[in-house]
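Why run this: before we spend reagent on co-expression, it is cheaper to look at a predicted model of the complex and decide which construct boundaries make sense. The entries below are exactly what would go into the expression plan.
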Amino acid sequence: MLAGSLFRSEPFRLFRIRGGVHPDDRKALSADQSIVDLPMPALLHIPLQQHIGAPAASLVTRGQMVRKGQLLARSQGLISAPVHAPTSGRIVGVGSYPAHHASGLSVRTITLQPDGLDEWIDDIEPVVEPFTLAPEEIARRVAEAGIVGMGGATFPSAVKLNLGKRYALKGLVINGAECEPYLTCDDRLMQEHSSEVLTGTLLMARALGVSEILFAIENNKPAAIEAMRQAAAAFPELRVIGLPTRYPMGSEKHLVQALTGQETPARGLTADIGYVVHNAATAKAVHDALIHGQPLISRVMTVSGNAIRQPRNLRVLIGTPLDNLVEFCGGFNAEPARLVSGGPMMGQPLPGTRVPAVKGSNGLLALSAQETLAAPEMPCIRCASCVQACPCGLVPLDMAANIRAGSLDASVSIGLLDCIGCGSCSYVCPAHIPLVQYFNYAKGELAARQRNQHKQGETKRLAEARNTRLEAIKKAKREQMLKRKREMEAKKQSEQAQQKVAETIEDGA
Amino acid sequence: MSDHSIVGGPFTHGGNSIPRTMQLVMLALLPATLFGFYLFGWPAIYLFMVTVLSAMGAEALALAIAGKPQRPFLMDGSALLTGWLLAMTLPPWAPWWIGVIGALLAIIIGKHVFGGIGQNLFNPAMVARVALLISFPLEMTLFTAPSPITSAAAPGLFDSLAITFGLGADLDAVSSATPLGHVKTELGRGLMLPQALGDAHSEWNLGVGSISGSLGETSAVLILLGGLFLLYKRIISWHIPLAMLGTLFVLATLFHLIDPERYLGPMSHLLSGAALLGAFFIATDLVTSPVSIRGQLIFGAGCGLLVYVIRTWAGYPEGVAFAVLLMNACTPLIDHYFKPRIYGRDRKGQPLNQTSRQSAPEKP
Amino acid sequence: MMASIVFIALLGLIMGALLGYAARIFAVEGNPLEGEIEDMLPGSQCGQCGFPGCGPAARAVANGEAPLTLCPPGGKALVESLAQKLGVSVDLSGVEEQQPRVAFIHENLCVGCTKCFKRCPTDAILGGPRQIHAVFSDACTGCEKCFGVCPTECIEMRRIEPTLQTWYWPEPARAA
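The model came back. Tokens follow.
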């Protein structure tokens, strides 16, 4: 213990990250609200795609009765995640429903009508001695529980836990930064469920095969830092580190840079420099899966913004339509200028509140015009505020100018694909140019062009294959005709020969 | 994909805007401008007003011709600021038409011909100043000694109208050379420096500013305060001013040490002419200076070098306008070659080499 | 005066002769440009450009007989790359980004005549005589050759709708 505390009192050396911005964190709106369970909604809409990778494949049919925690859809392929029933009830349908996405498009969704009994499926059982499980087994159970990155990225966590096999890892970093304004869900989670987050963290470290754990929390959350320090007091290999409050400290590449001073190589992973980063809420989900045997069926969300009457932190079942959350928080006190999923910097605008909460939704913001501070776009004055703000060392004004002129390849050559889309540049731009949207458009357009080119290549291949086939058919026909002609000739000749013989015999007779 | 109604994030903003940026620069210029009004009296005030109003008028005209809306471009403060800076570089008792022609040149030729705000290659105020200097050398080099507005000798409201709007001042009576102009002439005449400088152009006077010159050349102290205010408000960064003044300082010191009688000392260089105005307000013009830090340092150093060379060996006593224009021409090249280093890549743009990826284990 | 005229004239004659000689020695057989342009075209031989296939269209573009905007399925991207290849500037405003379409067979109207799949240049239609046909939408290039021959008009050209995987942010609307 003494050695542990001696080790702890040594200050941890932090490194600076370039650029970044310091927005007003607005967390006071909901920071003191302890997590409350949202009452069961009338219907749950559970999308089959709530993660990066291939959508899950539905296993249920309309009318089927399911229990809480039952597997509704299984994962497809290496990068995918299964989906489980958040409560017991009846499957009302499997069809298209508006997705939790800015585009307003629909996605295949399972609609479940809760029966009010909330009965768990029979084979949910706590794991005995989870710390004796093999690392691969831990990762397998995490995959089975449908756990994905809960910080918003929704990358299947099991894939990241298996990186220990391919990379020589030094440590696990837990991302408790929560650098986006308004969001306080991870903050409350760490305060109220610190021992569970801790257990999940230790299990993930075991799965990765590392002993060093860095638990990083921004300095604007002193209560969370204290809570985690107390919970982790008995584990000297886990250090809780307070980070300077700066956006985008929560970006995993910049988080690792702040902690270790090393930059992740371009197009690489943080595993390339020996660290794997997981979100704090993901750690709690891992605890639930391994200690209680429960799959991922709910998450904590922050409902905030000036247009919401009562900002709160809610525990929400996956698939709950967002209007339930708004209603529980007292409704809107004014028509929101913007509805945002996530934080204001990187969050997605939502088409409405009909859409369901998904595994990656960490916040619902109803923002007033005074908060969004939107203003008409002016021409770029090359003030270079964006260059100073960019944490990736890019020149956003030049990239946007290239994209506006249609030279997408020029923007790639000055670093478009290294952009993490944090929004710091748009935040500081005095001309209110939507820089991030230009970059997202360009990235999408380039991907679409690549798909097009691929299709053109395939088209050529198919056309050529068809030509080859038709030629082969023609050739075969010709050969057959020639063969038949020869056969006819041969037959004719043999007939003539026979006739001659017959005549000779006749003559002879 | 052509549905433009979907607006992306971020859904919050730092609160900065173009008008705010321009307003802060004008605020920074205010002390020096007011002091200049005090020193040179009503003719300076009239010239200033004429120049600024012409700049606004030229902007309205250019916007109308270009088919752009008057709002928000006319009121974004950029034309006002250009006119203000131009007025700061004119001889305070110059006739009104110098201000008008200068403003037209700055706004129409210096800015709108290139495509409007943000598109110009050269600093508009400097384009106008240089064009005026070359076209009207007489009016642009006739400076007067300061005659503070409160003193009895200063022309009153109506006499000043005659000076600015009339046929120009009877300037023989009151004309006086700027310190740099004086030095160049005297050196040309063969006099050595200590005598050439004279008492009127001691460094104290240069600093406080009771010397003849344009509005921006007088009070070095107030200009410096304005510049520091801009740095504090993060409108400009310290790289260009430091590089420019630093290079000027180093070169001046070097040559002054070699031959103190032929080369002005560093403080004289820094405090006289438009060096400080140039370093904080002109070379740092956002549109025409490089965007990366290394680029800005090179730009500033180039300005400083050119200012020294022109002042010392070229035909004009003051070189800031020419130096800035020449470096503006280099800005696109500087921006092309000197970009910041991208995260995760080395200076050449290649990904950093480390990986702890292990080769796949042998299958049993 | 006379001397300069004679000298310049002589210089011109000599330069001209040198250039003509060089043109003969360094002349290139055929036009390699044609092959390169053909590679850039989609290759589905749809005929919407008015030429009987991508090869003749490439030849026409290489000889400057056809406008660069001749290929609707290529869209703006193709016009840009052709312009870059040929080193000319081109006005993109008239080019419509053609919404890609794929054929869809309404199975209740299909009689199994096989006319459509025989014409499909990429073999994207599955079927046999007296059997209902269906289109592999991944392989369909929207050339509309099948559309023209179906006797029961059961083929519909449908727009490709964006999915969650293919949707991306639109370009921000231009400011004033």
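Strands of chain C lie at 101-105, 125-126, 134-135, 155-159. The two ends of chain C are 60 Å apart (CA to CA). Bring this page to Monday's planning discussion.
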